[in-house]
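Re: Re: token formats

Sure, here are both.
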Amino acid sequence: MRKSANLLVVICFSVMALLLLLQVYWIINYYNSALKDFEKEVNLAFEDGIKKELSLRCDTIQHIIENKLLDTTAFTISARFDKKDQKYVYTVSANGNAKDKFSSSFSLADYSKALPKDKRDTSVRKQVASRLALLMREEDLEQHIIYYRTQKLGLFMDEQTKKYQFDTARLRPAFNIYLKERKIKVPYSFIVKKEDSTNNKGIAASARTKTYPIVTKAFSTYRYTDNQRYVRAMFKSPTSYILSRMGLMLFSSLAMIVIVSGCMFVILKSLFREKRLSAIKNDFISNITHEFKTPISTVSIAIEALSSDEVNQNEDKRKRYLTHAKNEIERLNLLVDQVLKMAIYHEGKSTLTKEKIAIDSMIKQLINIHKIASGKDISVEYLNKSGTDCLLADETQFQHAINNILDNAIKYSRDQPEIKINILRNHNDLIISIEDNGIGISEKEIPAVFDKFYRVSTGNRHLVKGYGLGLNYVKQIMQQHNGWYKIESKLAQGTTVILGWPI
């Protein structure tokens, strides 16, 4: 039994350790996978943010160029009809320099209108300026190149691109938009450098990378007026972000560990409880066997003696042997009766016959019986402060409960037992407290003293004879009366048993 129990404990703890290791392994793998996904997502968001920042700059410069082309003091827009293509071709030239114009005029594939004679009608000029500004955006700004279609227009565009060049202050709100779409709220910072590589995703370790361990790939800013030619985004550790996304997995893993641990705990607790009960039962069987053998042996000797003529002819001896036999048979009968009563209580077959009990007279009568039967010099202090001398309960069971406690108080006390019995009333309970000056019970054994067959001393030899049934009997009686019970004790200082009877 012990080897099997120890093996089961080892197996249970091994399974728990393996389960825990597997959970840790899965969580670490999931975390690493989530970290890679995080790096991928922030890189995609950063690329989108870079494009958005460029798009915003292009929008601004395109609008400025369009307005500049409509400025008649700066540029002139003219139109001529091409007979071959049967459409109007438009020319843009700088005012003040007739040669500063497109070397070849441009045409609009889906637009062909003559310039209105009314100078106030600017519809055609607006269409031409809008189309030309869009063309310059797509061919020049978005490709980071400036074509000098006219010297004046080229210089103006160069001036505007320097004025509205890359800026992290403009990049941040654009980047935040795409981070928000991905529900990423990890603090970050930008790092701009003169030299970097857009093909290299790594960056040299530094004190800054310790604070910001996640670094995106670099993008060119096409800003040549200073050292801000490449930009990266650097993120602080995303552990809290990843763990928040792992919430369900962590909760389910923890729940599974708790459930499995709880099941194993219940199994092991039941196993050790059964193991303890088995040891207690064996101890009980050993003790009760000894108790049965003693009276049986005494009766056998008495019967053998009575069968001889010498004893039969001696009236005193005959009566003495008969008295011994009778006492031992009554002792056996009492023991069998106790075991049977415990079985009846355990199966719930006992019935209550409640009646009014005169508490004072009943307890005093029980005290006197124990004083005579024990053969010890017993001192009993009895005090009833409850204000009542009657209790509605089963008289026989009440006697058994008080008898068992008094019996223990006397058996486990010294040569001169001192017992204090106090009766109090607390709300709807009549409280009977029985205190002795006995050997006491250790704190760790107190929770088990009301268990069936349990005895404080172990093994098959006890200084005080008993069967481990008394307090369990008291427990069953109190439960049947819907009352409560409690024990307080300290080694070498005595024990107090408290019974709460409903009234």
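Second one below.
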Amino acid sequence: MSQGAFSSLKLKPELLENLTSLGYTAMTAIQAQSLPPILNNQDVIAQGKTGSGKTAAFSLGLLERLNVKRFRVQALVLCPTRELADQVANEIRKLARTIHNIKVLTLCGGMPIGPQIGSLEHGAHIVVGTPGRIEEHLRKATLNLEDVNTFVLDEADRMLDMGFQPAVDAIVDYMEGERQTLLFSATFPKQIESMAKRILVNPVRIKVESTHDDASIRQIFYRLESDEQRMTALRLILQQHEPESAVVFCNTKADTQSVADELNAYGYSVAALHGDLEQKHRDQTLVRFANKSAVVLVATDVAARGLDIDDVSMVLNYDIARETEVHVHRIGRTGRAGSTGLACTLFSEKEAHRVERLAHFLDQELIIKALPSLSLLDQPIKTSVMATLQIDGGKKQKIRPGDILGALTGEQGIDGKQVGKIQIFDQRAYVAVHRSVVKAALKKISEGKLKGRSFKVRQLR
């Protein structure tokens, strides 16, 4: 993938120095093609999937233009989901480590607006957020975009899919003066073209082929004799392959919940992700899946957008996607970061035409197999090694990952190797621990102190 060195770019010395310390030396295809025009202050439309390195491309562009001494919002990045906004903000902070006193603020829906207004009163250089919440701040006059010189739309196609077109249009109307606009999208439906015409000026167009090498994803299609077979087929495939982590895609919210409930009843470590979940439950679900305390995530396409978890070992299409591009997007969740992935798709006779259409679209012979032997259902189910603990305190209580790790591994504590991923939100924190030490971990935190205070803790199921 490497296309040249970052050192060949005209970037501030402190940015180059930081890139080297992060181990970013060679550029990905999308970075090599988009960074020169971005640094040349041109508008850019780039087509690239999650995992292509696009976040670093636009982040370096806006950091290069930033004047830290001016404590005004100079860059606005719009993302379709809160998860993606959090990831983007973290990436920007990571790339800006060597620039002192830089303030990156995340403004997303599903969170109380009061604390966000308080943070805005203290000022910020870069705002990353979801369109609905950004528009709300503009209406309340708590956010001022007069000084914005870089405007980024990340995963623009997803924003339009989720109905954010009016909000994006309203936000653009609040920006005055000249600015650079960078639009990134995995697909280019007509809506994107018309939006691009309205808000970009003579854009440079960049298209990078998918970073998922077809060879890294093995696809198997399973023909069902009847729809009643679906759940049995799903269980057989999970039993045969015993994935470390699997995403199961359903076409409807109702199916997503019922498939997750049924798998749970059979004893699988499973979580559901769909649009009817409250933000808190959505956070908990994503945390459990990312830290391996849920092995199977059952999701709808819309809910899974912005889901960026590198090591998904398997994707299962419980329902075949209605559109070929959606199928490609689904299976692209596995086989990332150099690992190989497996994508299995169930289809009935009445869906055979979709499989034919896919074969034509992918231009490849598809492997169609009979279901594995029913005897697999008698084997024990692979459950998760980790469990997730929720602590009722977070960033607002100044809790850091080191505080949690210290509390768990302190005097007569558990071994550091038994502690997994730690994620901290505004009012809550989550830590993964080995299932064998759940009781000891709960005891250490509930009886100990974090930042000199006691916090409630419980295990997420």
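The chain has a mean pLDDT of 88. Residues 234 and 318 are 7 Å apart (CA to CA).
- S.
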